[in-house]
Design goal:
Elements lengths: L22 E4 L2 E5 L7 E2 L7 E4 L1 H7 L4 H4 L6 E2 L13 E2 L2 E2 L5 E3 L2 E2 L15 E8 L3 H4 L6 E7 L7 E9 L3 E12 L4 E11 L9 E13 L4 E15 L24 E16 L4 E23 L4 E27 L2 E19 L8 H6 L4 E20 L2 E17 L5 E18 L4 E12 L4 E2 L10 E2 L3 E12 L5 E21 L10 E20 L4 E16 L15 E9 L9 E10 L2 E2 L7 E2 L2 E11 L8 E8 L7 E4 L2 E4 L4 E9 L1
Parallel strand pairs: 8-11
Antiparallel strand pairs: 1-2, 2-3, 4-10, 5-6, 6-7, 8-9, 10-11, 12-13, 12-39, 13-14, 14-15, 15-16, 16-17, 17-18, 18-19, 19-20, 20-21, 21-22, 22-23, 23-24, 24-27, 25-26, 27-28, 28-29, 29-30, 30-31, 31-32, 32-35, 33-34, 35-36, 36-39, 37-38
Length: 678
């Protein structure tokens, strides 16, 4: 009878790359995560606007940088400085987030002036963007919000991928991602890596990378899990990414870098762990720690008006940045009457420092600049302590979020003589939020939240005030936000919409100055009070017709309430009032197109001012992106796939000006990848 029984053929099982460890996701739609509240909470119940870039969206779009990965996110601005792959210079709701708003796995990443931590999308399984002040949850962070990148973590089921990529600008790349259980299954591993050799449209500006990120998870007991997360990466990019500004408000098609002296070598590593221990069914202890370092070796060059012709100068800058962060928290669930509580309390500590070596520019030759042993020029050591308490209360369809935190920050700033000046600051930040589930599809929410950031270094009154330097006051922000989250009936979807109002006091922006007047400084901090008001709408969708989509719209009014002379009441430069995007990926599971995947997206960046005095405008711009995939399993080769991606298909190289200096956008690029999953 067994020989005569009917044979049933099972469909292909598609193994996903994401671990769903700290963020549960399905296609383009996030389900729940720990990013916003430090507890596993459904995204729709959190009274805060949150954007998520899932693993599937990363795989479909194949971004090369963190800025590329956030290009379709509402409230995020990624084009303020044109093409510059050296830095993840992200803005959220009009405020810079690259100094204090970048987190990895819930722990702060503090960048030095030039030694920035690089976040490689292939090593990530998701991005979570928390909109508005989040200091009550994560401590020192900016008024616009934070970006938390989620590292790829070990999976309990086997998943392996090896891919080869080729593309424009002589792009050659090998990537691999291997994970699964070891031994009796209590231990699992992940090994992710990239080796890339590539040029860019800028002459002498490379995009080379060697990166490996091993990770281990060990289930010590049924109640205790330890995860080890590590990474080593060395990249070589160009030291200069600018074009010559021959006149105010105009970037010529003259690249100012020297192709023979243009290496920016960035070497970084990180080592950290996470421990989760269930003390009981209702009480869990979480502990995280990470140590990381970045060494930056920057060769740069520039042009200046030498009368009848252009002259050239060269410079060599060295910097080392170190970062130790630790967080210990206790999570408890309990009930008081009709109220269900999820309480999180804890403390964290960070010690970050950098040392810079720079002796100024050289007007003789690149060889002369390279031959000089650069002297110590500046440094800083910052120690931060914080305690926090978060109570998440639910009853019926209501959820209430009450969060409070107090931070102490001590900073020692060193001058060229290595003489230190000590400053200290402390402050409270809080959040009150509420959400109400109207029905199974609609939730409305509101919040009031604040931020606290000590500002280091000196601030000046403007480009015409070199003698006004003084210690900066801490930056504080306060947000009011109301919104809704909605799921289209019968679909996997999440639509978020909110109206927000953020006031920031004692913030700073960088302004270009004459180095002859400011002791060799090319940029200085200028204090600005800013008022950000706007509307954000964003949706992620997994439709049953094999189409997944993301779409967004942002309206932003970014007013300078107090700043440099002549800027009060103006709009902050490079901040468009309107921006929008839409991306869709169609991957039919049946029919004539079965096995093919077709993706297309359009991004719109509206008009903005080119300087803070609002004397000239940046034009609005459109960017188009395309994707094409094919699964060779349709012809009997399971696991083999082809993917082609085109970024900026319109080949837009228009300029964008910020604070009066103008940059240009990278033109069209394309890659083709062949990958094998097993």
């Amino acid at each position: 009878m067994a020989q005569n029984s009917e044979v049933f053929l099972l469909g292909t099982i598609h193994v996903e790359a994401e671990s769903d460890d700290t963020l549960v996701q399905n296609g383009y739609v996030p389900q729940s995560g720990r990013q916003a509240t430090r507890t596993d909470t459904p995204i729709r119940d959190i009274p805060q606007n949150i954007s998520t870039v899932t693993q599937d969206q990363i795989e479909d779009q194949r971004p090369r940088t963190l800025l590329d990965a956030l290009g379709y996110t509402s409230g995020a601005s990624t084009t303020n400085f044109g093409y510059d792959s050296r830095y993840d210079a992200i803005y959220l709701r009009g405020f810079s987030a690259y100094s204090t708003g970048l987190f990895r796995d819930g722990l702060r990443q503090v960048n030095g002036p030039s030694a920035w931590y690089q976040n490689y999308p292939y090593s990530l399984e998701a991005l979570a963007v928390l909109k508005g002040p989040s200091s009550a949850t994560y401590g020192v962070s900016g008024s616009g919000g934070i970006v938390n990148v989620v590292s790829k973590r070990p999976k309990e089921e086997a998943y392996n991928e090896v891919q080869l990529t080729f593309g424009t600008d002589d792009h050659k790349e090998l990537g691999f991602d291997l994970t699964g259980p070891l031994g009796d299954g209590r231990l699992s591993y992940r090994m992710t890596g990239v080796v890339r050799d590539a040029d860019t449209p800028l002459e002498g500006f490379q995009d080379n990378l060697t990166m490996i990120a091993p990770a281990l998870t060990y289930k010590l007991t049924e109640r205790t899990t330890v995860t080890l997360l590590t990474e080593y990466a060395k990249s070589t990019r160009g030291g200069t990414a600018s074009y010559y500004n021959a006149s105010y408000g105009e970037a010529f098609d003259i690249y100012i870098g020297d192709p023979e002296y243009n290496d920016f070598v960035n070497e970084q590593w990180r080592l950290g762990y996470e421990i989760t221990h269930e003390l009981s069914d209702n009480v869990t202890l979480h502990q995280k720690l990470r140590y990381s370092e970045v060494d930056a070796d920057l060769e740069f060059s520039g042009l200046y008006d030498a009368g009848a012709d252009l002259g050239r100068f060269w410079g060599h800058y060295l910097e080392n940045s170190k970062n130790l962060v630790a967080d210990l928290s206790l999570e408890a669930s309990f009930t008081t009457g009709a109220l269900n509580h999820r309480l999180v309390t804890g403390l964290d500590y960070s010690n970050t420092s950098y040392d810079a070596y720079y002796g100024g520019v050289n007007y003789v030759s690149a060889a002369a600049a390279d031959a000089i042993d650069q002297p110590y020029s500046a440094g800083q050591d910052m120690r931060q302590y914080g305690v926090y308490l978060h109570d998440q209360i639910s009853t019926g369809g209501w959820s209430f979020y009450l969060s409070g935190r107090y931070d102490w920050v001590e900073t020692t700033t060193y001058d060229a003589a290595q003489s230190g000046t000590e400053t200290s600051a402390e402050g409270f930040s809080g959040r009150i939020g509420a959400s109400y589930a109207v029905n199974s599809d609609l939730t409305v929410f509101a919040n009031l939240s604040s931020s606290f950031v000590p500002t280091t270094g000196l601030v000046y009154d403007g480009a015409d005030a070199p003698d006004s330097g003084r210690a900066a006051d801490p930056t504080r922000g306060l947000q009011k936000e109301i919104g809704l989250k909605y799921q289209l009936p019968g679909t996997e979807s999440l639509i978020s919409a909110s109206v927000f109002d953020i006031r920031q006091e004692d913030g700073v922006v960088y302004q270009s100055v004459d180095p002859a007047d400011f002791g060799g400084l090319y940029q200085v901090q200028v204090p600005y009070d800013l008022h950000s008001r706007g509307v954000e709408i964003e949706g992620q969708f997994n439709f049953k017709n094999d189409l997944r989509m993301t779409a967004s719209y942002t309206y932003l009014d970014m007013e300078i309430e107090a700043g440099a002379s002549g800027t009060e009441g103006n709009q902050l430069s490079a901040t468009p009032r309107h921006s929008a995007s839409i991306w869709g990926f169609y991957e039919p599971r049946a029919g004539l197109l079965q096995g093919w995947g077709l993706g297309a997206g359009l991004r719109y960046v509206g008009e903005s001012w080119g300087d803070d005095t609002n004397t000239f405008r940046n034009d609005d711009q459109f960017y188009a992106d395309l994707s094409l995939t094919y699964d060779f399993g349709q012809v009997g080769v399971d696991g083999l796939g082809l993917q082609v991606n085109v970024k900026n298909a319109f080949d837009n190289t228009d300029q964008t000006c910020s604070a009066g200096y103008c940059y240009r956008t990278e033109g069209r690029t394309a890659t083709a990848s062949i990958a094998y999953r097993f």
